[in-house]
Amino acid sequence: MAKRAATDALRMKLTMTAHASTKPAIAMAAHNPLAAKLAAEAGGFDAIWASGFELSAANAVPDASIISPDLHLQNTRSMGEVQDLPIIADLDTGFGNAINLAYAVKKYESAGVAAIVIEDKTFPKDSSLRPGGRQLLVPVEEFQGKVAAAKAMCSMLVIARTEAFIAGLGQDEALERGLAYEKAGADAILIHSKQSTPDEILSFCRAWTGKVPLVVVPTSYPQLSFSDIARLTDGKVGLLICGNHAIRAAVAGMRRAFRKIVNDGGIAGVEEEVASVSEIFELQGDSDMRELERKYLR
């Protein structure tokens, strides 16, 4: 029931008319069920972003369509099993063409996913923020087919992501693509940028005339707060995604602990900096298992 209520709230945010929303939903990235559970535990987030970038990083491979669809699906399903926030699945380019995507979306819907994001780059993709990356976009009509196929095959929210700014094609191309994807049935348009200032994103949002809400990922321009984004875009943004902060926090924390252990020649120095064993037991649901043991083990 809690997950259904959270999913309905997210759907309401992303199906309002573009100018109606004044407080965007916030999604936190996760790369495994533990990260998803911690994000839900933090409070204040409306959804979990099942990030392809984070899952790739967690497996120490590039974010370039290397992770298998089965691994991605299983990880996404597992995130939904351990906490009640709705899952937004990052499907990159949809694992191929419109036919590949049509088959994939059924599996994600069966896994309990609330929304998917697909992007208009060629397959295999390259990470949007990678310096010198291969940022090639498919024709508009081809991506419209992907959006239409996804909408026809599932009842999940379908968010169309245009990489026009990432590919250096400018605002006019970004707007044209966004409107075309809305026409194909997209429930929201994700507009992405790798600029260190929010200028091109804010300009796009102000120029947006579509009726569906926008989605932004402020990784490259962190100086803009959530309330700033809502205010400066006239409420056109319905969803903000914290795109990769779980894996970055995990990497930073582990590196600090590992270096300290090596430098200290022992583990005593990190005990105050790391989670206690009892905290880990709690996150694992140990008490629930013990209750089952009491009831059913003879």
TrEMBL record:
InterPro entries: ICL/PEPM, PPH, Pyrv/PenolPyrv_kinase-like_dom, Pyrv_kinase-like_dom_sf. Gene3D superfamilies: Phosphoenolpyruvate-binding domains. Transmembrane segments: none annotated. One of its GO terms (molecular function) is catalytic activity. It comes from the Eukaryota. Pfam families: PEP_mutase. PANTHER family: PHOSPHOENOLPYRUVATE CARBOXYLASE, PHOSPHOENOLPYRUVATE PHOSPHOMUTASE. Belongs to the isocitrate lyase/PEP mutase superfamily. PEP mutase family. This is Phosphonopyruvate hydrolase. It comes from Cladophialophora chaetospira.
